[in-house]
Amino acid sequence: MGVRIERSEIAGIGVRHDVVTKSGQRVGVLIYRDDRRELAMYEANDPDAIAHSVSLTGPEAEAVADLLGHTAILSQLSELGSDVVGLFTEHLILPADSKYLDGPLGDTKARTRTGVSIVAIVRGTEVIASPTPDNRLEIDDVLVAVGTRKGLDDLVNILAKTNN
Questions:
Q1: Does pTM top 0.85 for this prediction?
Q2: pLDDT value at position 107?
Q3: Are the C-beta atoms of 123 and 138 separated by less than 8 Å?
Q4: Reduced to 3 states, what is the DSSP secondary structure of residue 68?
Q5: Exposure class string for 90-123: b at 16+ Cβ within 10 A, else e
Q6: What gap in Å lies between CA 17 and CA 109, rounded to an integer?
Q7: Quick check: helix, strand or coil at residue 21?
């Protein structure tokens, strides 16, 4: 079953988008003409009565969207090896002080040193699928890695190495 989204124009105010959850709860995003955003939870018995709301600036709304999108992408990617015994998928955040920061992925020699495959880099809401050794690693990158438990543990240790 797909996700149900309802869109309503609010004359002189803006646009309202509602997601109706599987349980029937309505979660709305109100986008005002002046670009403000409001996240709203509606009363169960009245789809127009707001039970709780949070006003968001443009950057705050983008941050929430990034978090929700990021979580959904990671959740989908984590299912890659879930049915194979001995194969694990992990999401590894590149440490801010890693010596590999701002360098090419190939410098880690991850596959050669650990047997682990880095199948994607998640950067904000962008997914770099099947990254090449030339893809540069940036702060807050999440590496989606597939391998054995030992290999993944070894990769965590490699990525944690600092220039110090």
A1: no
A2: 95
A3: yes
A4: helix
A5: bbbebeeebbbbeeebeebebbeebebbbbbbbb
A6: 46
A7: coil
Contact yes or no for 162/98 (Cβ under 8 A): yes
- In the three-class reduction of DSSP (H, G, I as helix; E, B as strand; rest coil), residue 161 is classed as coil
Task: Tokens 């990525």: give the residue.
Answer: 159
Q: pLDDT digit string (tens) for 104-126?
A: 999 999 999 999 999 999 888 88
Cβ contact 161:110 at 8 Å = no
In Å, what is the CA distance from 109 to each residue of 91, 102, 104, 135, 158?
18, 15, 10, 13, 9
CA 45/CA 137 separation, integer angstroms: 49
Report the C-alpha gap between 75 and 41 in whole angstroms. Answer: 24
Query: Residue ranges per domain, the chain?
Result: 4-56, 67-159
67-159 CATH fold: Alpha-Beta Plaits (3.30.70)
Start-to-end Cα distance in the chain: 52
Residues 36-47: pLDDT tens digits?
899 999 998 888
Pairing of strands 117-123, 46-56: unpaired
* Strands in 11-138 per DSSP E: 14-20, 26-32, 37-43, 46-56, 88-93, 117-123, 126-129
